[in-house]
């Protein structure tokens, strides 16, 4: 007869299987099952022990725990008989908290041992094979193999010409678990000459530079490479060296978190151009390396590599796959029931998992009635998948404990995993705020239950356990914080105070503060959020110094996208008088500036126009002038030169009213000179730049920037006239002033123009060196427009150096990216460069490519009024005519 609190037989088996039938005591590790002398039997020396006793007189009894919890899997741990006896007889030394830690660590070890079984076979056959799973894949204990998909992947990996495999599909389809299962349990790693595997999840760490450093560290620690090569070079250069020596399998999971989403024109493009260049290098590698990518979006940055990239678009689960998954999740019913559930939930794996997690026990044998009840609550008419999943999550929320809801909303706060100590501290703080007296061990039990459900992912990173969840779940439960009275402020203050550093010097610290600003803004505590942005982030200056414009974009969006009644007038720089309108316009302008830094012109224009709508005719003249200045820069980048002239005229008009700011006026003169230059009006451009250059004294710190910028502008004019001696002298002048203020953006332009100078002088090695210096600065500052401009020149230099294949790939990428991001001027430049590179060969096909490129460039330059382009177009057209005549 079962006693109160006893575990069921099925639960005992589950406890044993979750630790691979090994005792959970880290000092023991004894296997608890084995063969019996009779062939049909086995021996068992393990037992399911209670972490908290069911009996008041038993070890580690906790009267606050319910009878249901006492008999649940959360309160169980698998031990050998000896260890079970020891921990129960000495409960003072073996606390519930320690046993819970044993359990978690034992399950983590079992998971790693399970996924390494196949890989041990690989390592045994290839002793040099190394691997590093920097982050864990999702728990695939309930994974349903898609056999046809796995066969397709196996076929692709055997083809050494395939350099990249992309796995895409809507969120929750199991992309991560599919790739993890394929590599961990199949033969993929033995089908190709791989020397190692490196797995990285951008869900866990979104910083591309940290990924590069981790990959370089992996290469340095495991392979006999020349270490100075890895230490002295820039990350991309060092990685090119690595992939010239090694054949590695690189897995990049969750790329959608670093791809553009809001802009239809650039959707799916990488926010960080470095990653695009890294993958391009893999596509061009002569070794057998392979990159496996997962994302909710298409990988549009690799479109030109049709021969090297294979795409797998995941479809929904079939009825048989859904039945297998639901059965593993203890959902009962007939084959027809499973088919109906799969049909209603559109074969979406996450939807099926949430449905199973929220299914009441009494409904497990008859799930259809529960499904009908949930769907009946949705609005009549078209019920899309998002509505269905939100309905499932709403029911799931009601089916779990209050502690678990608080834990899930805590896991959902950051855009990256949250460490265990912070999660527990925040959850306890929120519980105590609600007058709930709860011990930390109880919160850990509830957290363990969420991990077991598969809806929360636990991983070890940086010597800490960290927790995350699917973006769909994150969005749902994050709203529980911001929509609950008082909780948003409490959580926001906790996030803001969590980083102990006074100086913000990394993205991990920045993530806490940016999330605090978002939570406070969304909760109605706008003034506190704005104060954080002003004091901790120096009104965005810290973000610019760290070259993380996406964080600035998140802050400015949160601070501007709120109800007007929540905004308070604040004093911001020289924008006056202070008002709600001016304050909101300031943050909309900031959103535009950060969007422009990321090269997202759609959102740049959107936010600047919203700022103008907000200000109407009543705002400060300077604020409106700043907005039109931003629109002028945007239109120059997009090639809309006519619109740029119109916006610049407006900026000049507003800036000239009421005590005009001479510094701001000169910024507008520089923009006017740039417009004259692009339109081929070199004399007018020279007049503007010379006026600015002569307007400022030599050594005043706040004036050297203008002398530097104008000197570079004058040098660019002389380069277009091929006056190399004068151009070099002006570049020396500009470099002198750039060095005084350590302005990296100005140094970038100086390196770029020197690259052009060396190219014109046929000094191609020197040109490449200068352009790579400029590229380094542009990458560090994430200046996408300049990166593309530099890449066009690098393509031409590579062609002159005999690197034709690389030159062709780079220039095709430039044509593609400039077109999709609508960088009109750069689209013309890239087409002209493609023609010039093609004419380096004398065959008929390349001449046709050049002809078509020049025709398209001619039409586009004419429509943009980009008349400077014709100085380069006409000589190439003449060359084609000579060839055709010959």
From TrEMBL:
Entry-linked InterPro entries: P-loop_NTPase, TPR-like_helical_dom_sf
Top-level taxon in the UniProt lineage: Bacteria
Annotated protein name in UniProt: Uncharacterized protein
Organism listed in the record: Pseudoalteromonas phenolica
Lineage: Bacteria, Pseudomonadati, Pseudomonadota, Gammaproteobacteria, Alteromonadales
């Amino acid at each position: 007869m079962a006693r109160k609190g006893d575990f069921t037989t099925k639960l005992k088996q589950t406890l044993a299987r979750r630790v691979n039938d090994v005792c959970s005591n880290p000092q023991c590790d004894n296997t608890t099952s084995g063969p019996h002398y009779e062939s049909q039997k086995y021996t068992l020396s393990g037992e399911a022990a209670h972490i908290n006793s069911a009996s008041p007189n038993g070890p580690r009894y906790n009267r606050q725990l319910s009878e249901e919890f006492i008999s649940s899997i959360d309160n169980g741990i698998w031990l050998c008989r000896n260890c079970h006896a020891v921990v129960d007889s000495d409960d003072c030394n073996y606390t519930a908290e320690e046993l819970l830690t044993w359990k978690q660590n034992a399950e983590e070890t079992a998971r790693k041992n399970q996924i390494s079984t196949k890989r041990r076979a690989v390592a045994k056959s290839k002793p040099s094979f190394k691997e590093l799973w920097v982050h864990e894949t999702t728990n695939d204990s309930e994974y349903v193999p898609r056999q046809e998909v796995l066969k397709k992947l196996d076929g692709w990996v055997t083809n050494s010409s395939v350099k990249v495999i992309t796995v895409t599909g809507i969120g929750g389809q199991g992309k991560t678990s599919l790739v993890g299962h394929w590599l961990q349990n199949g033969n993929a790693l033995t089908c190709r000459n791989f020397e190692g595997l490196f797995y990285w999840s951008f869900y866990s760490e979104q910083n591309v530079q940290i990924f590069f450093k981790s990959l370089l560290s992996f290469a340095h620690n495991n392979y006999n490479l020349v270490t100075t090569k890895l230490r002295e070079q820039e990350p991309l250069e060092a990685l090119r060296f690595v992939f010239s020596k090694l054949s590695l399998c690189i897995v990049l999971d969750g790329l959608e978190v670093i791809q553009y989403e809001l802009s239809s024109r650039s959707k799916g493009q990488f926010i960080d151009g470095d990653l695009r260049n890294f993958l391009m290098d893999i596509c061009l590698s002569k070794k057998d390396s392979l990159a496996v990518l997962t994302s909710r979006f298409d990988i549009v940055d690799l479109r030109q590599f049709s021969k090297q990239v294979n795409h797998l678009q995941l479809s929904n689960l079939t009825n048989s796959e859904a039945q297998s998954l639901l059965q593993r999740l203890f959902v009962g019913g007939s084959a027809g029931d499973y088919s109906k559930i799969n049909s209603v939930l559109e074969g979406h794996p996450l939807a099926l998992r949430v449905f199973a997690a929220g299914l009441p026990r009494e409904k497990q044998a008859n799930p259809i009635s529960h499904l009908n009840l949930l769907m009946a609550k949705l609005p009549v008419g078209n019920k899309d998948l998002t509505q269905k999943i939100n309905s499932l999550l709403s029911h799931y929320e009601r089916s779990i404990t209050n502690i678990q809801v608080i834990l899930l909303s805590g896991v959902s706060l950051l855009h990256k995993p949250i460490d265990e100590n912070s999660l527990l501290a925040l959850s306890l703080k929120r519980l105590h705020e609600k007058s709930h007296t709860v011990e930390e061990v109880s919160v850990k039990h509830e957290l363990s239950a969420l991990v077991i459900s598969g809806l929360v992912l636990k991983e070890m990173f940086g010597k800490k356990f960290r927790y995350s969840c699917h973006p769909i779940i994150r969005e749902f439960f994050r709203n529980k914080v911001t929509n609950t009275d008082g909780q948003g402020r409490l959580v926001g203050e906790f996030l803001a105070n969590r980083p102990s550093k006074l100086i913000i010097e990394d993205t991990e610290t920045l993530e806490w503060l940016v999330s605090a600003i978002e939570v406070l803004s969304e909760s109605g505590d706008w003034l506190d959020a704005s104060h954080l942005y002003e004091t901790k982030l120096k009104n965005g200056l810290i973000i610019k110094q760290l070259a993380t414009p996406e964080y600035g974009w998140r802050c400015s969006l949160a601070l501007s996208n709120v109800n007007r009644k929540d905004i308070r007038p604040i004093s911001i720089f020289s924008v006056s008088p202070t008002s709600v309108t001016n304050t909101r316009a300031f943050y909309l302008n900031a959103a535009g500036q950060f969007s422009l830094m990321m090269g997202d012109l759609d959102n740049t224009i959107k936010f600047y126009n919203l700022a103008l709508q907000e200000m109407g005719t009543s705002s400060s003249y300077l604020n409106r002038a700043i907005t039109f200045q931003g629109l002028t820069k945007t239109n120059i980048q997009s090639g809309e030169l006519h619109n740029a002239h119109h916006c610049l005229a407006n900026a000049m008009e507003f800036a000239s009213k009421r005590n005009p700011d001479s510094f701001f006026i000169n910024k507008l003169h520089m923009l006017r000179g740039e417009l004259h230059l692009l339109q081929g009006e070199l004399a007018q451009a020279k007049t503007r730049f010379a006026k600015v250059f002569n307007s400022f004294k030599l050594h005043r710190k706040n004036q050297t920037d203008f002398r530097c910028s104008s000197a570079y502008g004058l040098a660019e004019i002389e380069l277009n006239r091929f006056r190399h001696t004068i151009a070099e002298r002006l570049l020396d002048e500009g470099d002198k002033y750039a060095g005084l203020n350590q302005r990296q953006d100005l140094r970038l332009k100086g390196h770029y123009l020197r690259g052009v100078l060396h190219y014109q002088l046929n000094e191609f090695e020197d040109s490449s060196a200068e352009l790579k210096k400029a590229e380094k600065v542009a990458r560090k500052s994430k200046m996408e427009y300049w990166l593309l401009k530099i890449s066009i020149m690098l393509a031409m230099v590579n062609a002159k150096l005999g690197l034709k294949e690389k030159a062709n790939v780079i220039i095709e990428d430039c044509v593609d990216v400039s077109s999709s991001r609508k960088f009109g001027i750069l689209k013309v430049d890239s087409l002209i460069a493609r023609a010039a590179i093609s004419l380096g060969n004398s065959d008929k096909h390349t001449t046709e490519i050049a002809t078509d490129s020049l025709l398209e460039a001619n039409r586009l330059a004419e429509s943009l009024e980009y008349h400077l382009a014709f100085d380069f177009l006409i000589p190439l057209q003449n060359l084609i005519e000579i060839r055709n005549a010959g």
